[in-house]
Amino acid sequence: MRTAFRVVVPARHASTRLPGKPLADIAGKPMVVRVLERASAAGASEVWIATDHEGVRDAVLAAGGKVQMTRADHPSGTDRLAEVATALGWADDDIVVNVQGDEPLIDPALIAAVASALADDADAAIATAAHPIHAADEMFNPNVVKVVCDARERAMYFSRAPIPWARDAWADTRQALPPELPVLRHVGLYAYRVGFLKRYASLTPAPVEHWEALEQLRALWHGFPIRVLRLDAAPAAGVDTLEDLIRVRAVFSAG
Predict the structure, then answer these.
(1) Residues of 105-126 as b/e, b for ≥16 C-beta within 10 angstroms?
(2) Helix 31-40 vs helix 108-119: crossing angle, to nearest 10
(3) Segment 199-205 mean pLDDT
(4) Is residue 79 predicted with pLDDT exceeding 90?
């Protein structure tokens, strides 16, 4: 049976590295509209753009999309989703997928798959995705978030550090990954049950959350299971920098 879910796309205009990112032109359309189109193809019952910027709102409305204006002071996209879910009166058992507003190349099938992963795990509060890491430089890169899972494909821990640690294999050299080491890179795509979203803002931060700068650790700290969908390969990268934007523009222009 097809999983019922909604999508919310948080779109902040005030990006540090690329200001005005949601309105950046990609082959004649603002980036936020490109993301809206991808999310709309995923089979969601509704797709909402959540923003605090009138220009973003106007661009989405002009494209026929739905917009929920939110506060400007949210510390994270999860908090912004919680405001939307509460404002629109969604039920606690409903599933909502958080699609980042800088993912104009995201695969609609991946959005649906993460929603289904959560629906299939009745006790999980969140579902996310990960894919294998094959290169040592990614393993030791703190900007690459790693996740270790248990036997039920639930997250045990997320870290910017290299986990799991290959004690014996790396005793002499760290130039390569042991072939059988189960290393997974976390993909920043989340499906939530609305009941968890409503509780999230009231949860105290985890002690490790500040040091790792990973908000998903708060859920684990408070005992909320996170289901991890394993992918065979990395999905298309999002847009963080001007170089990323140039790359994505080239993809659309060639397509």
Answers:
(1) bbbbebbbbbbbbbbebeebbb
(2) 50
(3) 89
(4) no
* Cβ contacts of 59 within 8 Å, gap of 6 or more: 22, 23, 30, 32, 33
Q: Beta strands 95-98 and 184-193: pairing type?
A: antiparallel
pLDDT at 15 over 80: no
Token output for 108: 């609609």
- Note the CATH number of domain 5-126+184-250: 3.90.550.10
Instruction: Give the Cα separation of 54 and 174 in Å (integer).
Output: 49
Residue with tokens 């998903």: 216
What span, in angstroms and rounded, lies between the C-alpha atoms of 253 and 229?
31
**What residue has token string 């936020």?**
32
Domain limits, the chain: 5-126+184-250
Alpha helices in the chain (DSSP H): 31-40, 54-62, 77-87, 108-119, 136-139, 194-200, 207-212, 216-221, 242-254
DSSP label at residue 196: H
CB 228 within 8 A of CB 130: yes
